[in-house]
Amino acid sequence: MKIPFRFMLAAVIISLVLSACSNAASNEDNEKKEQEKTKEQVLIFGRGADSYSMDPQNANEIETWRVSKNVYETLVEYEKETTNVIPKLAKDWEVSEDGKTWKFNLQEGIKFHDGTDFNAEAVVYNFERMMDPSHPARHDATFSVYRGMFNGFKGDGSVIEEVNMVDPHTVEFKLSEPQANFLSNLGMHAFGIISPAALKKYGADIHENAVGTGPFKLESWIPNDSVTLVKNVEYWKENSPQLDKLIYKVIPDNTSRLTALKNGEIDIMVSLNPSDLKSLENDNSYQLLLRPALNVGYLSINNQKEPLNNIKVRQAINHAIDKKGIADAFFYGLAEPVKNMLPSESWAYNHEIEDYEYNLDKAKSLLAEAGYPNGFELEFAVTSNSRIYMQQPTKMVEAMKASLEKIGVNVKIVSYEWAAYIDQLRNGEHSIGLIGWVGDNGDPDNFLYSMLSKNNAVKGAAQNHTFYVNDEVSDLLMKAKSVMDEQERTEIYKQVQKLVHEDAPSVPLVEVKEPVVTADYVKGYIPHPTGAENMDEVTLED
């Protein structure tokens, strides 16, 4: 049968209309998807160096902890702007009258990222991994922070004698003696709790993987490029985190990092060149923030190498360094010279010590007394990666080289990328190097015991990068750990600083307020004194 033309035309029109409607609907769907995509909260954090490891327990540097802070959680943590202790995975705790038994009641219903339960058994497994050299999940890890904070390992002086499960949601720590800063120590980034199932699954490769209870999960790690974290949609805290994705992007050069911020390639950057501050002060597109000065930058002098094992040589180096000149030239009013291995705002700082003055004639005289009237050759190690306490580190070292050469010390500068540099210092392979310490918990023990005790001068795991050994100093530092009275502890620490100043194992340089810059649409970001902060409440606003 022949179909009338008018019906054919009508069919074509209907088809076109339906097609148009379909296309319109499709376009609307695409627009909605695009809008949803643009609404995705993705924050890119620009930093100067890569993480050393994904295992926080086996690290002792801030780039690892900057990431792990948002993947792993500790029993207790610090307030957002201070080092005051507050609950985290433990909801509350109690301590015995003698200070040697601590009982923690744990949060319930929390899952690790792999779906396994967080409970007392997991806490026990993690601490036994750190404290027991024979633990099967230990592998080749050194756990230098555990050793430093808790005086050694099981059977080798560890103040933690036992960690026991009382019930599925209660864990008990038995100490050999009271420890004044025990609670503060537990809040340190190095004691994040790892999934026991993950430790068993990945074995020695846990350093490349990350399975915690935190607000973000590890999606990928491209070494020396980026770490990508994604939102933990099953996170135990309601309405947290706000971000869908958190990317830590490595941009070694400070100036290049600032350019990336200005180009919209990153949203936050740390380690801004202080000289760039003025260029941003009146620009409302950015927020300028300052991280409190809970840090000390210093020259690590290897006390085990000749001629640096000579006290007069070390004193000469101290006299040859112009601390104020360095503070002024590289930190633009954000740094102050220090004379001790402790921030000046610490309640234990010894202000009565008279610093080594910048005096090249005195330095030359001391070298002559030490038997080096014509100086000597010295290899000066440095990393190109900036830190709070060392902005433009290569240029800082070049300035110090110029001073040292004026007293006859012929300096050769050797540069390393960050991870290799840390290994140099931990293994005692350097002669002298520029480094620093950012406080982990606000307690003076964290600075003085970590950097000056002979117990931390263990090659391969050293936090005492000078390998300074003074039995009296080490004994006093051990004594201070168990003294509960703050005034008595203060007097001990002042005596320690006096002895250390005389021995000159290092050159304390500066304490620094770190400038951090964010785009104006970043809300809720607060730089923490310890250098690593929770990002769970950070948002991006239109």
From TrEMBL:
It comes from Mesobacillus campisalis. SUPFAM superfamilies: Periplasmic binding protein-like II. Residues 85-457 form the Solute-binding protein family domain. It comes from the Bacteria. Keywords: Signal, Transport. Belongs to the bacterial solute-binding protein 5 family. This is Peptide ABC transporter substrate-binding protein. GO terms for molecular function: peptide transmembrane transporter activity. Residues 1-24 form the signal peptide. GO terms for cellular component: ATP-binding cassette (ABC) transporter complex; periplasmic space. The keyword S-adenosyl-L-methionine does not apply. One of its GO terms (biological process) is peptide transport. InterPro entries: Peptide/Ni-bd, SBP_5, SBP_5_dom.
